[in-house]
Design a protein that fits this description.
Elements (H helix, E strand, L loop, with lengths): L5 E2 L4 E6 L5 E5 L5 E2 L3 E6 L2 E10 L14 E2 L7 H14 L3 H8 L12 E6 L9 H12 L7 H8 L3 H9 L3 E6 L19 H15 L4 E7 L5 H14 L3 E5 L7 H11 L4 E3 L5 H12 L5 E4 L11 E7 L7 E4 L1 E4 H12 L2 E6 L4 H8 L4 E5 L10 E6 L13 H12 L3 E5 L8 E4 L15 E4 L4 E4 L5 E3 L13 E4 L3 H11 L5 E4 L7 H12 L5 E4 L12 E6 L13 H13 L12 E6 L5 H8 L2 H15 L5 E10 L2 H13 L2 H5 L3 E13 L2 E11 L4 H11 L8 E6 L6
Parallel strand pairs: 10-17, 10-18, 11-13, 11-14, 12-13, 14-17, 19-29, 20-27, 20-28, 26-27, 28-29
Antiparallel strand pairs: 1-4, 2-3, 2-6, 5-6, 5-7, 8-9, 15-16, 21-25, 22-23, 23-24, 30-32, 30-33, 31-32
The structure holds adenosine-5'-diphosphate and zinc ion.
Family: Belongs to the helicase family. PriA subfamily.
Cofactor: Zn(2+)
GO molecular function, one term: ATP binding
C-alpha cells in the first residue's frame, strides 16, 4: 500500500535523516508537508537534513515529538525515487541514510534559486602573468569555459580570492549576475536522424514500440563496435523525448564523451545535461533541480547520475554495459547497471544495455528471455572487423629490455610508410611495474599497502597504485644499502614509449595514460589531436579501448596478451576477452580500403581465450563461459556476496572475522556456504589490515535477509573496525 502523499499540520510523520539514526518520527509543520519533501529537523542540539518518508512509525510518546524545523525549497523526492532507494537499500544492504545522501548530492539545495554572481572568461590574458593567475585560467579551460562561483574558482585553482579579483580588474575575467537553475534548452526529437540501415531500423522500431508501452522492459543491444548501436539508441531517446519523458544515458568514462555530446547536439539541436565529477557546483545544482522539474530532457552522465531526481524517467541507456567502472566499490557497493534495471522497473521505464562484448550475466539474462535481445550484425558502412592474429613470442628473437617483437616492428614500419597510424596497447601505467635491487633482489613496496611501488619516470617518482602514495626513486637499496643497483623490471607504457623513440626515431609517438593528463579536458584534446592524425604511433593503457574514432588507425598491437589471462578472478577470461576485442576493434574503424590488422603478442597462442578472440565466434565464447559458471554454481547461476573487514590491528580484525564465521547459522539455513575468513589478496591498504569472506548461495536464496540476520546476531564490532558487504562482487581484492 502506498503511503499518503500529504501530511497535515500536526500529523505524525517519519523522516529519513542523513544521519546514522536513520528514520525518526516528527510532527508535520504548519501548512503540512508532502511525501518526499526535503526538510531540516532537530536532532538533539543539531539541525540535520532529511526527507519525509511516510506516516510516523515509532511508539515514541506523541507529546514529546518535535516538529519539523523548516522545509527546504527544493522539489520533493517522488514516490518512485523513494521506492527505488528502499529497494536498493534492501538489495545492496546499504543503510538508507547513505542512499539519501547519494540522492541529494547537489550543493546549496537549501539556498533560494535567485540570481548569483558568476565568473567567466571575458578578455585576453593579463599583461602580468603569475603562476597563481595561470592556475585560475587553467581551471576555467579545464571546465570548457563554464561559469564559476567566485569562491569555487579560487578553491579549484588553489589560490586566494584576491587573485581572481585581480583577473577581473585586469579584464581577463568578468563577473556577471546569472539567473540560477535555468531550464536546459529543449532537445528537438523532430530533427531527422541518419537514414538507418535495415537491421538498425528494425532495432530502433522495436525500442520505439517498447517505449510506447509505458511499461518496464530491458533490452540487450548487441553489435560490434561501429555497428551503429549509438545511432539506434538515440532513436529510442527521440521517442522518449516525443512522449515528454526524460532519458538518461550512462557512459563509463564520462571524461571521454566530448565526441558523444557533439553527436547528441547534431541529432537533437542542443546539448544534453552533463553529470560527472568534472562539472561545477553551479551546474550540479542546476541539473539536480531541473531533473526534478522535467526541465532537462536528456542527461548524459557517469554512474551516479542514476540518483538524479528525474520527474518522469522513460529510458535509461547503459552504454558499454559490461564496463567494470559501473561497479562502485567504495562506501556504497553497487552496480549502476543492475540498479538502472531496478530503477526502471520502479518507474515503468525502458532500459537499453548496449555492448559489443556483453557481460556473461546480461548474456544469460537475454538467453533466458528475461531481457529482450537485439543484434546489429553488419558493421555500419564499408569497414570490416580487423583481421586478427597472434605473434608467438616463443618464436620471436626478443632482445633484452625490448617488448616489441620483430614481426610487430615490421608492421609498424609499413604503416608509418603509408601514413597510417599504429596503436600499441599495454595495460600498465607508469615506467616499470617493479623496481628491485640487483644486489639483494629486494623489491620496493608501499609503506602503507601490500603492493609494489610502480616507477613513473615522467614524474620521476615511485607511485603506489593502491593508495596513491609516492616516494623518490632511491639511489641506495633500502634493504641492503648498496648504491646504484636499483633497476626497473618489466614494461609500462612509459618504458614502451622509450623503446618506440629508440627504434622509430622518425615517427611521432603519443602516450595515452590516465595519469599523464592534468585534466579530463587535456586528455580529450590529446585524443582529438590523435584523431586528426597528429601522431604515428599511439601507446596506450585501457583508456584507448573506449570508443574513440581514430580514422587513420590500421594496426593494433597488443604487447602482452597474456596479462589478465591468469588470475584467480572469476571474470579474468571475460575481462580479457572484452578488453582485447575492444582494443582490436579500434583498427580500421572507418577503413576505406585499408582493412585493419590486430596482432596479439602472446606466449600462449592456444589459450582458449586467445583462440576465442581470434575466431570471432563471440557467442561460442559466452556460451562456454556460461556453461562453466553454471557448473561451478557461479553468477549468474549462483549468488555471491563478499564481506570485507578492515582494522589497523591485524589480530583484532582476524579475531572478529573468526567470531562472525562461527555464527554463520543464518547463512547455512538458506543453503549458503561461507568461505574464509582469509587475508585479502591485498592484505593491507592505507595501513589497515584486510580480511575477506565470501558467501555463495543458490540463485533463489534470500541472501540479503540471511546476511542481515547473521550480522545483527554478532557481537558489537570493535571500535574502528570497518565492515562492508559487497553483493554481487566484481573484484575480489
Ligand atoms: P557503435 O555505437 O555500435 O559503436 P555508432 O553508432 O557509433 O556505432 O556508429 C559508428 C559510426 O558509423 C559512427 O561514426 C556513426 O556516425 C556512423 N553511423 C552509424 N549508423 C549510421 C547510419 N545509419 N548512417 C550514417 N552513419 C552511421
Ligand atoms: Zn599504498
Amino acid at each position: 500500500m502506498s503511503p499518503p502523499l500529504f501530511y497535515p499540520h500536526g500529523a505524525r510523520i517519519a523522516v529519513l535523516t542523513q544521519e546514522v539514526v536513520g528514520v525518526l518520527d516528527y510532527l508535520a509543520p504548519e501548512g503540512g508537508v508532502r511525501l518526499g519533501q526535503l526538510v531540516v529537523v532537530p536532532l538533539g542540539p543539531r539541525r540535520v537534513m532529511g526527507a519525509v518518508w511516510g506516516p510516523g512509525i515509532g511508539d515514541f510518546d506523541a507529546a514529546r515529538l518535535r516538529p519539523v524545523a523548516r522545509l527546504i525549497d527544493a522539489p520533493p523526492l517522488t514516490p518512485g525515487m523513494i521506492e527505488f532507494l528502499i529497494r536498493m537499500g534492501e538489495y545492496t544492504l546499504t543503510p538508507l541514510p547513505l542512499l539519501l545522501r547519494m540522492a541529494t548530492r547537489a550543493p546549496d539545495l537549501d539556498q533560494p534559486p535567485s540570481a548569483r554572481r558568476i565568473i567567466h572568461r571575458a578578455g585576453p590574458p593579463p599583461a602580468r602573468m603569475t603562476d597563481a593567475r595561470a592556475a585560475v585560467l587553467r581551471v576555467i579551460e579545464d571546465h570548457g569555459g563554464a561559469g564559476f562561483a567566485p569562491g569555487e574558482l579560487a578553491q579549484l585553482a588553489g589560490v586566494s580570492a584576491s587573485v581572481v579579483q585581480g583577473l577581473v580588474k585586469a579584464g581577463t575575467l568578468a563577473e556577471v549576475l546569472a539567473p540560477r537553475d535555468v531550464p536546459y534548452p529543449r532537445l528537438d526529437p523532430g530533427l531527422p536522424g541518419k537514414p538507418l540501415a535495415e537491421d538498425q531500423a528494425e532495432a530502433a522500431e522495436t525500442l520505439r514500440d517498447a517505449l510506447k508501452s509505458h511499461a518496464y522492459g530491458t533490452t540487450l543491444l548487441r553489435g560490434v563496435t561501429g555497428s551503429g548501436k549509438t545511432e539506434v539508441y538515440l532513436e529510442a531517446v527521440a521517442e522518449c523525448l516525443r512522449q515528454g519523458r526524460q532519458a538518461l544515458v550512462l557512459l563509463p568514462e564520462i571524461a571521454l564523451s566530448a565526441e558523444f555530446l557533439d553527436r547528441v547536439e547534431a541529432r537533437f539541436g542542443a546539448r544534453p545535461g552533463e553529470w560527472h565529477s568534472g562539472i561545477t557546483r553551479t551546474e550540479r545544482r542546476r541539473l539536480w533541480t531541473m531533473a526534478a522539474q522535467n526541465h532537462v530532457g536528456l542527461v548524459v552522465g557517469a554512474r551516479s547520475a542514476l540518483f538524479l531526481p528525474f520527474a518522469d524517467l522513460g529510458l535509461i541507456v547503459v552504454d558499454e554495459e559490461h564496463d567494470s567502472s559501473y561497479k562502485q566499490e567504495d562506501a556504497v557497493y553497487y552496480s549502476a547497471r543492475d540498479m538502472a534495471v531496478l530503477r526502471a522497473s520502479v518507474e515503468a521505464a525502458q532500459v537499453v544495455l548496449a555492448s559489443a562484448t556483453p557481460s556473461v550475466e546480461s548474456w544469460v539474462n537475454a538467453g533466458s528471455g528475461k531481457y529482450r535481445r537485439l543484434d546489429l550484425r553488419a558493421r555500419y558502412g564499408t569497414a570490416d572487423l580487423p583481421e586478427m592474429g597472434t605473434i608467438d613470442l616463443r618464436q620471436q628473437e626478443m632482445e633484452r629490455g625490448r617488448w616489441i617483437s620483430p614481426r610487430l616492428a615490421a608492421e609498424i614500419r609499413a604503416r608509418k610508410e603509408r601514413g597510417e597510424q599504429s596503436l600499441l596497447f599495454l595495460n600498465r601505467r607508469g615506467y616499470a611495474p617493479i623496481t628491485a635491487c640487483r644486489a639483494c633482489g629486494q623489491q620496493i613496496g608501499c609503506d602503507h599497502c601490500d603492493a609494489r611501488m610502480v616507477e613513473h619516470r615522467f614524474q620521476n617518482r615511485l607511485v603506489c597504485h593502491q593508495c596513491g602514495a609516492t616516494k623518490p626513486i632511491p639511489n641506495a637499496c633500502p634493504s641492503c644499502g648498496v648504491e646504484g643497483k636499483m633497476t626497473a623490471i618489466g614494461p609500462g607504457v612509459e618504458r614502451l614509449a622509450e623503446e618506440v623513440a629508440e627504434r622509430f626515431p622518425e615517427a611521432k609517438a603519443t602516450v595515452l595514460s590516465s595519469d599523464l593528463f592534468h585534466s579530463a579536458r587535456a586528455l580529450k584534446e590529446a585524443i582529438a589531436e590523435i584523431g586528426a592524425g597528429s601522431t604515428d604511433i599511439i601507446i596506450g593503457t585501457q583508456i584507448v579501448a573506449k570508443g574513440h574514432n581514430f580514422p587513420r588507425l590500421t594496426l593494433v598491437g597488443v604487447i602482452d596478451a597474456d596479462l589478465g589471462l591468469q588470475g584467480a578472478d572469476l571474470r579474468a577470461a571475460e575481462r580479457s576477452f572484452q578488453l582485447m576485442r575492444q582494443v582490436a576493434g579500434r583498427a580500421g574503424r572507418e577503413g576505406g580500403d585499408a582493412r585493419g590488422l590486430a596482432l596479439l603478442q602472446t606466449h600462449q597462442p592456444d589459450h582458449p581465450v586467445i583462440r576465442a578472440i581470434l575466431s570471432g565466434e563471440d557467442e561460442a565464447f559466452w556460451d562456454a563461459e556460461a556453461v562453466a559458471r553454471q557448473a561451478a554454481g557461479m553468477p549468474p547461476f549462483g549468488r555471491l556476496a563478499g564481506i570485507i573487514l578492515s582494522h589497523p590491528d591485524q589480530p583484532v580484525v582476524e579475531d572478529y572475522a573468526r567470531e562472525l564465521a562461527r555464527r554463520a547459522e543464518p547463512l547455512r539455513a538458506i543453503g549458503a556456504e561461507l568461505f574464509g575468513p582469509a587475508p585479502a589478496p591485498i592484505a593491507r591498504i592505507r595501513a589497515r589490515y584486510r580480511v575477506r569472506m565470501l558467501i555463495r548461495a543458490p540463485r533463489q536464496a534470500p541472501v540479503q535477509g540471511a546476511i542481515a540476520e547473521w550480522l545483527a546476531s554478532a557481537p558489537k564490532p570493535p571500535s574502528n573496525l570497518r565492515l562492508a558487504v559487497d553483493i554481487d562482487p566484481q573484484s575480489f581484492l
